[in-house]
Structure formats: structure tokens, C-alpha cells
Amino acid sequence: MEAITDGITVIETPNETEYYDVMKGSHRWEVKVHDHGNVALVDTMPRLAPVGQTADFAICQAARVSYGAGTKKVTEDTGLIRYLYRHQHTSPFEMIEFKFHCVMPIFIARQWIRHRTANVNEYSARYSVMPDKFYHPSVEDVRKQSTSNRQGGEDQMDTKTAQEFLDYLDQAEECYKTYNNLLDKGVSRELARIGLPVSVYTEWYWKIDLHNLFHFLRLRMDSHSQKEIRDYANAIFALIRPIVPVACEAFMDYAFESVKLTRLEIEAIRTGKPIQSTNKRETEEWIQKATLLNLTDHIPSKDQQQQEEKKQ
Question: If you average pLDDT over residues 132-145, what whole number do you get?
Fold first, then answer.
């Protein structure tokens, strides 16, 4: 069937396949994060999938265009998706996109925005008044500085020091009253905002394709990532998993829960000798992997480790 609009001929293709909405007719799937934050899935592409399939079908559709093959069985689609992910043929995963509405503290947003492969539009404190909402952890969530990771925290802080930290946050949040008073006196929003702490909440719309989203999740769901942004990453994964379950399973099997071995590590396994590296961090990473893989014979003794440290 053809329709002519503004001199352009539009060909309407008969719909021979029955489709359904992968978000089940909802305009928003939301997960609450912390006291004031949340992640909401507000749209996805494709929004419609053939009945009996998931949005994973779009990955196979894109992959098979290379050789003109028609629709395959769901079981064959699963095998293809796993093959594509296993061998890092990533472009078919870019055919799926997700749009999120995210509300988070600014200190998390600044880590998040480092992933530059998404489209972002953030709440503007030049145009609007910042909300009176701040991230305030519990005593149990206050962590000591890690001794092995300069950019992270680990074990729980003692209660007295943790309470001192929370009192410090209370003082920082008090500046909101001053911020509001200055706005009432006519100070511009673009200047008044600069005194607010990074614990204040912001929000944005964030659109990203599945390939780049998996890269984000692999880094931000990892135990080495800061717990607060890890909570958001886990929420995102929970939202997309029902829509692309096959791709998510491949991601878990071949990326997130896999172990990548370097040439030196493979050589250590092959020869049964300690890893041939003078880099302390590289050796420590190998020990972690060998322990995980139960390769106890390949873990250097403390004496061997001390000898290597002396060489360095």
C-alpha cells in the first residue's frame, strides 16, 4: 500500500508478524536507589518485538543482514548472540538503545559522565533551583580508606569517626539555607549554586546503546567500583534484563563473571613457574586470578613475593 505525503511516496508494508510492547504498555519502569535517588527506564528501541521473542531479536536481525538470512528460531538466535558477544562482534548490539531518567548526587554524576558514549541532558542549576535533597549515608555505610586502592574505601569505619563524618555532612547541608536566602535576595542562580556540596542531587536523561551500556556496567557493577554508583549500575541491569535476557546472560558469562588472562599469566600456567613480572600490582592481580581458578600451585610463596619486591 502506498501513501503520498508532501510529494513523498511512503510504502506501507503489511504486518505479517504479531508484535508486543517489551515494556508491557508502561511508560516508566523505576528502581529506587538510596533515599532520594532512582533510575527509571522510560523508553527502549526496539519498543516492539515479535510475539514469542524478546528485544534480543534486533541483534540477530542486524547481524544477519550481512548475508541476507531470514528469520531464525529463538534457539538459533541465542547461539548467534552468544557467539557475537564471545568474539566481540559488537556492532549488532548497538541496534538496541535504552533511555533512562536518573536522579543521583552530583559526586556520582561526575563519575558517571566519564562514560562518554551516551547522550545526556542534565538538570540545569542556571535555569532552576537545586532541590533540598542530599545524599546522607548511614553510620554503617561510612568506610575506611583502602590501603590497597588509592581511589576506594573498604572496611567499616569505627562508629565515633563515622558519626563525626555524618556531622560534617550535616554542616555542609546547612549551606542550602544560605543558598535559598541568597536567591531570595536576587543573587543569580548560576552563581548561588557554586557553594553547594557535591552531595546535592541532580538528574538527567541518559540514552545509550546496549554495547556501550554493557561496557558501563562491566566497570560500574564491579566490586572495585564505588559502592554508591555500583548501586545505580545494579539497578540499571535489573531494568534491562527482562528486555534483553539473552544478551544479558552472554554479558555475565563472557564479560562480567569471566576472567581475562594476559600473555604472562598464560605462560605461568603453561610452565608452572611464577609470573615473569617485576610489577607488584600485576603480580597481585595474578595471585587473585590464580586463587579464583584454584591454581594454588601457581601462587608464589610469601618468600618468593618478598624476593621479587626486593628486586623492584
Answer: 92
- Judged against a pLDDT cut of 70, whether residue 304 lies above it is answered with no
- Please say whether the beta carbons of 256 and 224 come within 8 A: no
For residue 73, name the pLDDT band (cuts at 50, 70, 90): low
Q: What is the mean pLDDT of residues 257-282?
A: 90
**How confident is the model over 215-237, as pLDDT tens digits?**
999 999 999 899 999 999 999 99
Instruction: State the cell numbers at 96.
Output: 538496541
Of 28, 40, 79, 39, nearest to 56 by C-alpha is 79
Active site residues: 220
Task: Name which of 210, 164, 167, 303 is nearest 22 in CA terms.
Answer: 210
Domain 12-122+202-256 belongs to what architecture? 2-Layer Sandwich (3.30)
Question: How many Å apart are CA 308 and CA 156, to the nearest integer?
Answer: 32
- The x, y and z cell numbers of residue 5, run together, are 505525503
pLDDT tier, 72 (very low <50, low <70, confident <90, very high otherwise): low
Q: Which amino acid is at 112?
A: W
When computed from its CA atoms, the radius of gyration of the chain, rounded to whole angstroms, is 25
pTM, two decimals, is 0.88
Task: Say if CB 199 and CB 106 are below 8 A apart.
Answer: yes
- The domain locations on the chain are 12-122+202-256, 139-195, 263-311
Cα torsion at 271, 274, 279, 281 (round to 10°)? 110
